[in-house]
Design goal:
Shape: elongated
Number of domains: 2
Distance between the termini: 77 Å
Structural class: mainly alpha
Radius of gyration: 19 Å
Oligomer: single chain
Helix content: 55-70%
Number of helices: 9
């Protein structure tokens, strides 16, 4: 008889632990940089369980990251203040290195041919289509795509590449310029 005690099995808790670990690792390293063994180790489970619950690394990414790709909170509120709301959020948000950040997971994974189709569908349906419905009016889909492109580009330049011109030292000007360009897309129905 073994003296080693086994922990009770809890499929739901195991699944949640794997998802939480995957979110942290995908945020830090992107899809290509993340390894299933690393995710399993961080979750405190055997690597075989990752495939058992999610079938593949792509399946894990689809459940851990894709559902959280949205800008819903920025769409709450008046259209007239969207530019300021979005610019302030994207020019001031930071990453502590400990928690899940779906935007960083997206940015660090978008070059991967394995998940590019998933990201494209999510961008079209969870981001662009929602913004377009919120905007309404003429050319709403194109305006929504340009809003998403500006926000993703801003986040990429500021938090991933850490360009000096968008650093905290220049935050007020960055917010002003981003506010104006974003609001123009909201207001103008060319």
């Amino acid at each position: 008889m073994s003296s080693k005690s086994k922990r009770p099995r809890d499929a739901s808790a195991t699944r949640e632990a794997i998802l939480a670990a995957a979110q942290r690792v995908f945020t830090e390293k992107g899809f290509d940089g993340a390894g299933l063994r690393e995710i399993a180790t961080e979750a405190g489970v055997n690597a075989a369980l990752v495939n058992r619950y999610f079938t593949s690394k792509e399946g894990l990414f689809a459940e851990a990251v894709i559902p959280y790709m949205n800008l819903d909170s920025l769409l709450e509120g008046d259209c007239a203040t969207f530019g300021k709301r979005a610019a302030t959020y994207f020019c001031t948000k930071s990453y502590d290195g400990q928690h899940f950040d779906p935007t960083l997971a997206f940015l660090r994974s978008m070059g991967s041919p394995d998940v590019a189709p998933l990201l494209r569908v999510a961008a079209d349906t969870a981001v662009i289509a929602k913004i377009a419905r919120w905007l309404g009016g003429r050319n709403s889909k194109q305006r929504a795509a340009l809003i998403a492109a500006q926000l993703i580009g801003l986040d990429l330049m500021r938090r991933v590449l850490q360009t000096e011109a968008l650093s905290q030292a220049h935050q007020a000007k960055a917010i002003l310029y981003a506010t104006n360009s974003l609001q123009a897309l909201v207001d103008d129905e060319i």
